Automatic annotation (TrEMBL):
It is found in: Membrane. It comes from Hominiventricola aquisgranensis. GO terms for molecular function: ATP binding. Its EC number is 2.7.13.3. Pfam families: HATPase_c, HisKA. The chain crosses the membrane at residues 20-41, 180-201. Residues 258-475 form the Histidine kinase domain. This is histidine kinase. Its main location: membrane. The keyword Phosphoprotein applies. The keyword Phosphoprotein applies.
Amino acid sequence: MHKIKFQGKFFKSLNFRIMLFLLLMGTVPALIIGGVFLMSYERQAMAQLSNDVKNQCQILSTQLRDGENLLKTEDEVLQGELTQLASLYDGRIIIIDQNFQIIEDTSQLEEGRIMVAEEVVRCFKGENTSHYVSGRFIEMTVPIIVENKDTKTVIGVILASASTDVIHVQMEGLTASVQMWIVVVIICALALSIILANWLIRPLQHMNRSIGGLVEGSLDGDLDIHDCTETENISDTFNLMLAKLRLVEESRQEFVSNVSHELKTPLTSMKVLADSLLMQEEVPNELYREFMQDITEEIDRENSIISDLLTLVKMDRKTQELNIAVTDVNEFMETILKRLRPIAEKANVEVVFESNRSVSAEIDASRLSLAFSNLVENAIKYNNENGWVRVTLDADHKFFYVKVSDSGMGIPQESLDYIFERFYRVDKSHSREIGGTGLGLAITKSAVVAHRGAIKVQSKLGEGTTFTVRIPLRYIV
């Protein structure tokens, strides 16, 4: 089974395909050249034989003329030439007069008989004919013509046949030589194709060994292959991929560390509070209630972190499909702001919604609701007293845009590139004070990206922040 599997992999390998291609490139032209050569030689040999016989017959036709209407066939010398010519080409010569009667036959089989064949009739009309008989003979007719002042008269026909056995014998020998030549070419092409295939595939084998070494080890090494331009380009691309994988691995490790820290902190606080209660024998009710209230807050904070983590996990699943539906975005934003206005009133922050046009779009309302709710809620929480939050909706022929601006504390310039990372906080002490988990903006970006959209942020420390979200009006699968 292992042997069959190995053979299957070999036949599917690039090495085998290159070898087969090179082998075909060497053998197919050789086969074509050999076949064309044999056909050309046979055709040329047959044409040469036909011309030779025809020339001899034309010479005979001049010797056979005896006056204007008579054929000279009684001459012993002439008969000897006919017999010699027939023997030379291992064939037969027949002389036919104007009455279609055979007056001379070198084989002496049909003398005196009438021969009214199509070729003979056509020859009496002045047309030479030539054709093969059973692939073994060439048969042709040559007219015997007497020329007067202005006319030409056909007084007889020479019907000659010549054997092609000699040509066939030559062709058999030549075919054997060509076949031997083709076998040599195939052997040489096979050897050359194996050598060239191994040479061409060597850079990929080198690359495979290098990648195998990286797989067995860490992600610290780089691929350094410069056998040819293509492998050098692949090597550079692979190194870029490795660099991104390192960033992903660092991000994963940092994320695990942050999750562990964030989940451990409330547990530590609850344990400290519980141990404080257990260490005191008689705890006043007021202190007991205060500690239990603190424990409840820590539990709520733990639940909030876990809920946000579960939300992120669901959004990160590529296989999970969006529940896309045509939605009135104006009404959708009004609903979100209506839900958040009590929080704004409690913080003494004014929330204003401005819509420049009526907008309908194909969106997953539940996911985008989380995104816009996080943006507006953050704008409220991280605002100043008596501040404002302005939400603006606009659209063009392809996208709709939502801007969330506030008059809050702003974000330092050096933090703008990291605010969408999980558990990242600009001001950790203030974030913990107002109950942030550091996952809100990560959830927001995940929802926006899932809709094939984009999110940008502009901020000045102490002046406020503006988030701009762009979402396609038609969802692109």
